[in-house]
Amino acid sequence: MKKNFVIFITLLLMMLTGCTINNSQSENNLPAESNTQSQLSSSEVSEKSETVNTQSTKSISRDDVNMDTILTKLDKNLLSNYDYSRLKNKNITLNVCNWGEYMAVNQDEYFDVNNEFEKLTGIKVNYKTFATNEELYSKLKSGGGDYDVVIPSDYMISKMIKEGLIQKLDYSNIPNFSYIDKKFVGLEYDPENEYSVPYTWGIVCIVYNKKMVKKEITGWCDLWDETNDNNILMFNNPRDAFGIALTYLGYSQNTENKKELEEAASTLKQQKNLVQAYVMDEIFDKIGGESSAIAPYYAGDVQTMIDENSNLDFCIPKEGTNKFVDAACIPTAAKNKEAAEMYINFLNEIQVAYANCDYLCYSTPHTGVYSLFDDEVKANPLRCPPDDYLNEKTEVFINLSDETNAYTQELWNQIKIEKSKSPWLVPAFLLISIALTFFLNIRRSRKKKQDIF
Predict the structure, then answer these.
(1) Cα separation of 288 and 209, whole Å?
(2) Is-contact 160 152, C-beta < 8 A?
(3) Most buried of 3, 21, 88, 112 (most Cβ within 10 A)?
(4) Is the domain of 271 the same as that of 414?
């Protein structure tokens, strides 16, 4: 009898201990409050995207919003339940660095993101821009950037994580992360989404002038078509250029196979005789100004170009393409981490994210913004590429090994220095440029005289 009683007591204690442990685990899994500083573990991030501070986020449809005024001024009724006043009167200046022309700021009669953030929070924003991922990387690596928020691209985020240049985020300060579509959570460049919150995304496509090309444009093959001789523009950086060539050949854009890279280099050398110029942002002016006929470019900018010139059209390459994601991160050396997380959360307020998306014409990872799109935007493959194409035909750049990056750069240098088909082409181009400059200066001089007299 005594033995049975002891067994009973032992079993009872085990049951009570188990309940205590389970209760403790349940409490540890509760959503973090917005004023806590605890980090979410990496395995929880994707799950927490739907549960962290769900009371702070809201679902808004087009019926809830005055779509005529949403792009002009901040409507506080559309804000989530977030304390944006808690850092007021602390004399904080936030240093933000983003791509050029990549946020709705300094636009007449248009929603100004940074101005509205300053009025709402009392935090001053010092806004700077960069031209390439590599430029931003160099600034952070040298310690000269002194930024609190940066918005690099996928593969560069991976590189920065590896080198300790950006830090883990406290998602209890970024509850609007719950708006990020699951399709953009846990991508290879940041598998656990510990370091980045997606800002925009898109694909690389082809923009061309319908009047200037002589054949139907179907894919990357048209950038090697002799009928477009001297009317082709090509990206002036090895990662994008090799990505296109590798896709054209049927290889992965992230290959580290030297033979495949060499084959891509040979293909780019063959193309060089057809290329008018290697450029980046100049594509906008050259294609828009109709001095070139066809080029690869980023879908959001292509949409803007088409809106401004009815002679332009686009092609989503049949061979496949690069899908890029740009995301907000906080450098390791940031001096105002909590304010930086507040800024990232503000970027993901529905109205703010919608204004940025409308201004940029890029695709959005934000489910709340997508719910405000009309049917025309949702059906536009530049703004909302089809899922089947994205799943079957696109790749996201990842950070390659230092050895592969160095070898690719070496191959690219060889391509750039190789002679063109005519030894007179460069001198002739220089003579024409000099003559054009001389002519324009004469015209300007005459115009000044006319204005004076």
Answers:
(1) 9
(2) yes
(3) 112
(4) yes
